[in-house]
Amino acid sequence: MTEKQKMLAGELYRASDPELVQDMARCAAWLAEYNATSTAPEAERTQALRQQLGAVGDNVSVRAPFHCDYGFNIFLGDNVFLNFGCVILDVAPVHIGHGTQIGPGVQILAADHPRDPALRRQLLESGRPVTIGETVWIGGGAIILPGITIGDNAIIGAGSVVTRNVPAGVTVAGNPARTLKSTR
Known about the structure:
The protein is α/β, with parallel strands linked by helices.
């Protein structure tokens, strides 16, 4: 398997592999262009998103600056909004459902690292998919860790660090995020 195939399969891989470095460089060039179009018409910006991301629904708004590793592992539903400064480390698939709103400075991290220091010394890393349901609201500055699933209609409080899955209809906040309220 190539390092890219390992990455996509969620196995340990080396991000310094030339193919992955080239993919990241291509994405960095695209990001520079995309982030420079902040005053362009929304239709033009959406078309630019569709050139790099895995899928982009209708009526999507991603405000600059936006940052990601590859782009091709990001899947946005209809009516998704990402505010200024969103970071998505997409070494594994990141799915964001219809109608979800994400505040400024939010980090969605699919990238992970081994717990074993010997493996880290070998510069190995991995990824775990992140799935965010429909009509979710994620407050500014929140951090979503690798492998997390957030259910439909959930609310993530500003500044929260989400270390566990969040069921549908639940409001969480804090570091680590804890349940505040459930509409279930």
